[in-house]
Specification:
By secondary structure, this protein is α+β, with helices and mostly antiparallel strands. About 25% of the residues lie in helices and about 25% in strands. It contains 11 helices and 15 strands. The strands form 3 sheets. Strands 5, 6, 7, 8, 9, 10, 13, 14 and 15 form a 9-stranded mixed β-sheet that branches. The model is unreliable at about 380-385 (pLDDT under 50). The structure holds fructose -6-phosphate and magnesium ion (2 copies). Fructose -6-phosphate binds near residues 22, 96, 236 and 269.
């Protein structure tokens, strides 16, 4: 007869509840009030431990508890922390105060109300290293490339080739953000199918990763898209991810390695531009230049009996200096395109647009060009705008 091991849940819930001097950086007073709310919850035993931080204008709540994923009490706690922080933001006149709290009434789960959520529950290993990634000025699909490389690319993760514990590979849950459904695909057998989907990161997002041999949870990414939820642009759906590392999972260095390439992501300036994802230490987790460039922080913890030991500020390291320098060069290169694609997103993905009104204004001034052949499916073309 076995005995059941008490499981630990790590919940990372984030929202932009207002920021200082534009969409730039969270104000310390809002961090303080969220900390107070979570400290009270810790003292009454609802959560075991917590850490509050920010990346750019996003307030990030990292919590551990025994209530499992999607627990109403935990979501309600996060909601009340954001509400209290938003009221401080309003008092201080911070910019876009309360912007991600789409509903006045909380109804059991923050999903769909604005905040982004990444949660996982597991039986702790004797030593449980966990990395929490948090990004600003981008979208959840920004994690597709690095998470694929961590769990499926042998050129990134040596363990896939030489560690018997990883050798069978991992399963990817890919979520279709438009249809609200997901599919589980297995690596390495279905590598090309996985890539066929996740190469479109605005629609297909890696939501969770499981170790194939025992279905153990390895990674989770927030998949909320505020723009779709609200039916119009409210705020950026800046993502968070939680990844377990070491002994049976990729090593910490294999988890960090793909971020040495500052790949292009969507979400810079007005949610309407591509730019490089720049991994930074916490002290540089603020968005300045052209409201960016998109920033990423990575905090490493040990989880012990639900306690969060740490964090280690993982990108606070000269080993990522060249990545940041390359990101700067790419940022300059992209900026020189100004309002042109591919710096500016395609019309179907822009959060801000004047195209329909410009077309409407010019509709009587467009004249037929003699002998021109019209493209098939003009309707779909205009729908893109
Ligand atoms: C917000 C963001 C910013 C804003 C931009 C315009 O997180 O990505 O780039 O979109 O600063 O903001 P508004 O329209 O509020 O002046
Ligand atoms: Mg913002
Ligand atoms: Mg943000």
């Amino acid at each position: 007869m076995g005995f059941s091991v008490e499981k630990t849940t790590i919940s990372v819930i984030k929202a932009d509840i207002g920021s200082l001097a534009g969409h730039h950086v969270v104000h310390p007073d809002t961090i303080a009030v969220a900390t107070k709310v979570l400290a009270e919850a810790k003292s009454r035993g609802l959560i075991i431990d917590f850490y509050v931080t920010n990346v750019g204008d996003d307030l990030e709540l990292i919590m551990t508890h025994r209530k499992g994923v999607d627990a109403p009490e935990i979501h309600e706690l996060a909601w009340s922390a954001f509400k209290e922080a938003a009221s401080v933001a309003k008092e201080l006149g911070l910019y876009a105060a309360g912007q991600d709290l789409l509903s006045e009434a909380f109804s059991g789960n923050v999903r769909g109300l604005g905040p982004g959520v990444a949660e996982m529950e597991f039986a702790e290993r004797p030593s449980e290293p966990v990395v929490v990634f948090m990004a600003d000025k981008t979208e959840p699909g920004a994690f597709n490339l690095p998470v694929f490389r961590i769990f499926a690319d042998p050129f990134n993760t040596a363990g896939l080739v030489i560690d018997p514990k990883l050798h069978e590979g991992f399963k990817f849950e890919v979520y279709d953000v438009f249809e609200g459904r997901s599919v589980i695909l297995s690596a390495p057998e279905e590598l090309y199918d996985i890539l066929a989907l996740i190469g479109t990161p605005g629609r297909y997002i890696i939501r969770r990763v499981f170790r194939k041999k025992d279905d153990e949870i390895a990674a989770v990414v927030s998949v909320e898209r505020l723009n779709l939820m609200a039916g119009r642009y409210i705020g950026k759906d800046d993502p968070v991810a939680v990844i377990r590392a070491q002994s049976g999972f990729p090593a910490l260095g294999e988890v960090l390695e793909p971020f040495s390439f500052p790949h292009l992501v969507a979400g810079w300036m007005r949610g309407s531009h591509h730019g490089p994802l720049m991994p930074v230490p916490q002290r540089y987790a603020k968005c300045t230049r052209f409201d960016g460039p998109p920033r990423l922080i990575g905090l490493g913890f040990q989880v012990k009996n639900g306690r969060l030991i740490g964090p280690a500020d993982l990108f606070d390291d000269p080993a990522f200096d060249e990545t940041r320098r390359l990101a700067q060069l790419i940022a300059d290169y992209m900026r020189r395109h100004g309002p042109f694609m591919p710096h500016r997103l395609g019309p179907e993905e822009m959060e801000y647009t004047t195209l329909p009104s410009v077309l409407n204004k010019l509709k009587d001034r467009f004249t037929e060009v003699k002998g021109a052949i019209k493209a098939k499916g003009p309707k779909e073309k205009t729908e893109m705008l």
